Amino acid sequence: MRKTTNWTSTILIALGSLLILFPLYMTISIALKNPEEMAVSIFSLPTGLHFENFRNAIEATNFFNALKNSVVITVISVVFILLTNSMVAYAIARNMKDKFFKVLYFYFISAMFIPFQIIMLPVVKVTTDLHMNNIVGLIILYVVYGLAFNIFVYVGYIRSIPYELEEAATMDGASTWGTYWKIIFPLLAPISATIGILSCLSTWNDFMLPLILLGDQNSYTLPLVQYVFQGQFGTDFNLAFASYLLALTPMVIVYLFAQKWIIGGITQGAIKS
Predict the structure, then answer these.
(1) What band does 263 get if pLDDT is binned at 50, 70 and 90?
(2) Which of 89, 109, 131, 208 falls between 20 and 30 A from 18, CA-CA?
(3) HSE value, Cβ hemisphere, 13 Å, CA-based, for 215
(4) What whole-number distance in Å separates Cα of residue 88 and Cα of residue 259?
(5) Which chain regions cross the lipid bilayer (predicted)?
(6) What pLDDT does residue 266 have?
(7) What is the C-alpha separation between 171 and 57, in angstroms, rounded?
């Protein structure tokens, strides 16, 4: 039997692809133009490839220093998020019958409904008073801010893991700590892959928290140094868009190399019984 084409889905997919590809085209096109070409037409293809925009953007933003800061902050934050958040979730998930842990669980979940703008000024005040307005303080805040959503996800996943596995490990002489590292943590790999990539993207792309927290320009991250192109009387769009491409390239490379594990983790998490 011959299959018919679902034109509605095909058209919607095509439109969705255009919505994604058009901004990417504009970013690459503007990054490779000069101001004169921009004045003629913003939508046209560049008549010449002005790669000097990338060199000038690297110099203007101190790109490699900002790249180092972003990599350090993102990698350390994600590692601590996966380790600490999963441990907290494990303690809560296995003690949900206890009233204290149930209250603690809903206390953490309630943080998901508090907008960042409400706590922004108190965070600045407290971190400044504690001399934590630096990279270390920023990493700690990323680990804490991810706690609410990550615990919500981890607890639901851990409760689907048969408790008999832990009982068998206990009978073999394993401690609670040993059971977690040898039994539970490896089984969390699918959901950890999902949380890891979401945390990585949100940490790498975050602009607001570094803006209000970091006072030293040598500590600026890649999203934050893009602000250098915003002048009082205008914006150098060619250099700005070249810098945007440089800033997003590392995450594209990470995704290209890690997509197998990312997709596999999401798929395994979806079919977890």
Answers:
(1) low
(2) 208
(3) 9
(4) 27
(5) 12-32, 71-92, 104-123, 135-158, 179-204, 237-258
(6) 53
(7) 61
